[in-house]
Amino acid sequence: MDYLIYKKLGFTRLSEEQFKKVITDSELLISSLTRDFYNFHSITDDLNSNDDFFVYRATQYQTAIAIQCDFADESGATNLLQQQTAGLTDVTIGRTHLSRTGNLFNSLTYGKSGVVKTAYDILGNTGLLYRGVSSR
Questions:
Q1: pLDDT digit string (tens) for 2-29?
Q2: How far is 12 from 53, CA to CA, in rounded Å?
Q3: Cα(60)–Cα(42) distance, rounded to whole angstroms?
Q4: Is the pLDDT of residue 55 over 90?
Q5: What's the 3-state SS for the chain?
Q6: Are 26 and 69 in contact (CB under 8 A)?
């Protein structure tokens, strides 16, 4: 996704320089979450399709990436490691265990993926998160 698409989707929070810092890792996180669907299918074909659902799915995919970019920049987690580990909450040293509950990063992200829940929720209605097995 490029900056023009980010702007076309209505996102304005990031400058082009900020966008460039977070786009690659944000795309990797969303792509991983969708099991690389658009690495095997053409997003351009979906966006130009006559099938409204294909257009919807591709647009929601791009929107999820844009949301993830905004979240990565706002949270300061601008690379994959930071996005996936910023929510560490437990430390054990010997028999002493410290647990920090209520971590804001953990409450905003899906599991340990580093993907902001809003982006995850958007993808939920597209079928891109489906994990079932074909019965054929």
A1: 999 999 999 999 999 999 999 999 999 9
A2: 26
A3: 14
A4: yes
A5: CCHHHHHHCCCCCCCHHHHHHHHHHHHHHHHHHCCCHHHHCCHHHHHCCCCHHHHHHHHHHHHHHHHHHHHHHHHCCCCHHHHHHCCCCEEEECCEEEECCCCHHHHHECCCCCCEHHHHHHHHCCCCCCCCCCCC
A6: yes
pLDDT category at 88 given cuts 50, 70, 90 is: very low
Question: Two tokens at 76?
Answer: 């300061």
**Amino acid letter, 2:** D
Length of the chain: 136
Q: Chain-centre distance of CA 134, in angstroms?
A: 26
Both tokens assigned to 121? 């929720």
> Who contacts 120 (Cβ-Cβ below 8 Å, separation ≥6)?
33, 64, 110, 113, 129
- Average pLDDT estimate for 96-122: 73
